[in-house]
Write a structure and sequence with these properties.
- About 40% of the residues lie in helices and about 15% in strands.
- It is an alpha/beta fold.
- The chain folds into three domains: about 5-15 and about 90-205, 3-Layer(aba) Sandwich (Rossmann fold), CATH 3.40.50; about 15-90; about 215-315, 3-Layer(aba) Sandwich (Carbamate kinase).
- It has a six-stranded parallel beta sheet, with helices on both faces. Strands 7, 8, 9, 10, 11 and 12 form a six-stranded mixed beta sheet that branches.
- α9 (about 170-180) links the parallel β4 and β5 (about 185-190).
- α1 (about 15-30) crosses α2 (about 35-50), α2 (about 35-50) crosses α3 (about 55-70) and α10 (about 215-225) runs parallel beside α12.
Length: about 325
């Protein structure tokens, strides 16, 4: 069956914050930009909630006019549509194209679920440079996220199995919260450096590692109902305090205990995350170790086993 990764666009793939801020600075000056962006964040969802049938172009225009009025600012003549006019030029984050290419190359179908209009998303798609199999936009369905209609329309069009669908987004309010409430795995792209949040399944700072090989392997192992999920690597085990005089190989660990430790983001970290997720979601064991030790890893005599049977962390002798 097909695997689907749905993405929010503005804020996740395209720099929504930067695009809005640039225009507000141009119109009203740099001094109050932070304050005005924060207020705009409040106004836009209020307008979308009270007027779900209007276009995003209208939302941008109404929000800008209301922002100027509320803050006692003069909006220059002919500039009421400034935000909508500027949107096609909003920059795409540097990590987006390689991340989407990797996801597509690994067999994921890509879809955008966006609070925008068709013509605006089409202009952004030129900048993104990656084809998406489906695009669902608010201007065509008469609804804005966090309302569930984007996901409902996506399911109608894709017939996607929820167990093979992950949603990726920057906004906790518009995307992560509603998608999590539907039982979907979610990846939060925390581009703004916000505090940790328990709602997403996984948290990243960019799109380039959204569908990494370890995450994909863990998902495949779950789909195959594997009795044991083994990841083979150059290291003979997972080590606590790796690279220090006190480093110790971990033989057996509960996923909660292992998740509380820090591991290198570019190497062992994704493997540990994938192993913990597999064990927690299936109740079965996951293991990490060297290819030469495979038979002993399966027997629990080498490598690191992540298991709900473990009380905490047990180190190798």
């Amino acid at each position: 069956m097909d695997r689907w990764a749905t993405f929010d666009c503005y804020g996740t793939l395209v720099d929504w914050n930067g695009g809005i801020r640039t225009e507000l600075e141009r119109l009203f000056g740099v001094e109050r930009a932070d304050e005005l962006v924060a207020r705009y964040h409040e106004l836009e969802p209020e307008i979308q909630t009270s007027n779900p049938g209007i276009s995003y172009r209208e939302v941008l225009t109404i929000a800008l006019e209301r922002l100027a009025e509320d803050e006692g600012l003069t909006l220059p003549e002919g500039e009421t549509s400034a935000l909508a006019r500027s949107l096609p030029s909003w920059p795409v984050f540097d990590d987006v194209r390689p991340g989407l290419e990797e996801a597509r190359d690994r067999g994921w179908n890509l879809c955008i679920l966006s609070n925008t209009d068709r013509d605006l998303i089409d202009s952004s798609m030129v900048s993104i440079g990656i084809a998406f199999k489906l695009i669902v936009v608010a201007g065509e369905i008469g609804s804005y996220k966090p309302a569930p209609k984007h996901w409902e329309v996506f399911r109608e069009k894709s017939h996607a199995d929820p167990a093979r669908h992950v949603h990726v987004a920057q906004s906790l309010f518009h995307d992560i919260e509603p998608a999590s409430a539907m039982g979907l795995p979610t990846i939060w792209i925390n581009r703004l450096g916000e505090p940790d949040d328990p709602r997403p399944t996984r948290t990243l700072t960019g799109v380039e590692c959204v569908i990494d090989k370890d995450y994909a392997a863990a998902l495949l192992a779950r789909e195959l109902h594997a009795d044991l999920f083994v990841m083979l690597t150059d290291a003979d085990a997972v080590y606590s305090d790796w690279g220090t005089p006190t480093q110790k190989p971990i033989r057996l660990a509960h996923p909660d205990a292992l998740s509380g430790q820090a591991f290198a983001a570019g190497s062992m970290g994704p493997k540990v995350t994938a192993a913990c997720r597999f064990a927690s979601m299936t109740g079965k064991d996951a293991a990490i170790g060297a290819l030469a030790d495979l038979s002993r890893i399966i027997a629990g005599e080498a490598g690191t086993t992540v298991s709900l049977r473990a009380a905490a962390i047990r180190y190798a002798a």
